[in-house]
């Protein structure tokens, strides 16, 4: 069974989980049943095995193609949802997170062009794997916090408009969602800081051009600052309610920018490799397109 | 019977009018005596009661004339008294006549017509409305029987109709909403402005949901102290509302003030200090005490009495079921009560019967006392025995009279009772006087009863 089959199976599990989450908005017995846990657990297992098989077959832990990036991003989102589900039982979040995970996996089938072969220098760098994993997991958690914030703002709008429909009944309290979005964003911030730190270390070694000339790095720093403001604001009690959710949304917009400004999307867009200087320095440009 | 006063109810409720109109037609507790007097004069009413709650304003009136004429006079009174144009009230006001009016009160008191099924406040409010009317001399025997029966049935509905199990009271709706905003109410502060019964009910519900930190504010410190002492919490004066807003999470407003006590400027000042922490404001006052504009302020959620119904949709579904179950019974009860009230004959005959029994018993005791064969202790025992016997003997007859009266067949029952017990006025009088003619032997006549058979 190839990695493609695992990917398809994982997407199927996520879609089934999304349907369970959507039905659960209306029907309490489905919402409170074990469906989401089972389907998410199954999907994540298959997803992880698929990634493992892919790494084993291609002899690489790099995710340099669009297909691989979407694949790993989908996995990070599923992990983020797992954290929200285990930590706060935010089952209604599945209606947002699981379709997104499934969509990323399915979209990845449209980008079958293989990524560049691994650079020996980068592959050998001990921080690179940490950088990639912490960045993706950080993104995943930020996006999970964003989904919680969207639910928060949606429930707040329902409360403001005094609409007491089945979605309103299915949503958890505002306070619970605020706690969840803050802590998830906080964990994401720690991981993202690790990614930024390892990235900066590697960039320093690569003798890269000034950081402010690199849009991805500028966007990364802006993202980091927004989430730092969030963490400090929440810790000091100066940020709460709608302002918290909006700050997370701002951070999320920057996360999306950072993700798409990064390799390999930027490469696809303008034919340049954002990783080129690093690869050149660390791997002498081996295997570069 | 044609001279009997027409019984009508004219009013408006959450079903027919928004809170903005209800608050304009609401009667303040302190104005009730004056309002009742004005109503009686204006509608030419023999009896009147005003039930004014957050959800309804209803005027129960017994007045000579046709029901339509009486209703018109009551409508005119409402319009004039509150200075609201009659055209504004055309669609909001409803009226019920005779048995329909009786049934309506039964449903109101039993909380079947309530905004939130099973809410407990309405029973107390109905009782209070009657008490106020009685104290003002506006409620006579007709309304007394009507309200007594309504309250009796309300208890029965609550006890056996499953209505109490719905637990969809205003209080629990408020708690449900609070839990949508705050996950755990334990660490949140509740600010109570006003010391009314509804505020007490909601506060108790919030307390059982975990609220521990309570601040009670009232116009007078004594009231706030008494409330805080009874329900737990600290107290203060209403003037300090501003100072408490920033630190509170739930604000419960229930004062009798005829104006807004919480305005946008208060909230904006508090909002700056709250740094975006949500604030849940419950305004159960009618007229409203919180400016509706505060709902527009970010992270502030204002809910009035109308909004609480939306929350308790589960209760609404069950209301239909309970209403379906109870409506035929309440209609039957309403018709029966009206029959009883329309035809005083069976009631008078029943009273004659009891009087006759009492007279016979007292005469027998007097005869034994005169004979001097029994001491006082023995006489008391004999009297008690005679009382029990009287009760048992008359019970069937009295029940039959009552059933006949409720079924609208009182005349036949009265005739039957008069013939059976020889209850002509002459007979009754002589029986009461000496007992010799009506009951020469104990076997020939019903024995005295101390306890009146239940009515």
Can you give keywords for this protein?
heterodimer, A: 289 residues, mainly alpha, Four Helix Bundle (Hemerythrin (Met), subunit A), 2 domains, 13 helices, 0% strand, B: 455 residues, alpha/beta, Beta Polymerase, domain 2, Rossmann fold, six-stranded parallel beta sheet, four-stranded antiparallel beta sheet, 18 helices, 10 strands, 56% helix, elongated, disordered C terminus
Task: Explain what the structure shows.
The complex is a heterodimer of chains A (289) and B (455). Chain A has helices spanning 3-26, 28-31, 35-58, 66-88, 94-108, 120-124, 126-161, 166-170, 174-206, 215-236, 241-261, 265-270, 276-283. Mean pLDDT of chain A is 83; it is low at 271-289. Helices cover 78% and strands 0% of the residues of chain A. Chain A has two domains: 1-110, Four Helix Bundle (Hemerythrin (Met), subunit A) (Up-down Bundle), CATH 1.20.120; 116-289. With 289 residues, chain A is an all-alpha fold. Chain A is built from 13 helices and no strands. Chain B is α/β, with parallel strands linked by helices and 455 residues long. Chain B has three domains: 6-166 and 317-340, Glutamyl-tRNA reductase, N-terminal domain (Beta Polymerase, domain 2), CATH 3.30.460; 170-311, 3-Layer(aba) Sandwich (Rossmann fold); 344-433, no CATH class. Chain B is 56% helix and 12% strand. Chain B has 18 helices and ten strands. In chain B, the strands form two sheets. A six-stranded parallel beta sheet of chain B has the order 7-6-5-8-9-10. A four-stranded antiparallel beta sheet of chain B has the order 2-3-1-4, sandwiched between helices. In chain B, a hairpin with a 3-residue loop joins strand 2 and strand 3. Chain B is elongated and about 90 Å long. The model of chain B is unreliable at 426-455 (pLDDT under 50). The interface between A and B is medium-sized, with 22 and 20 residues.
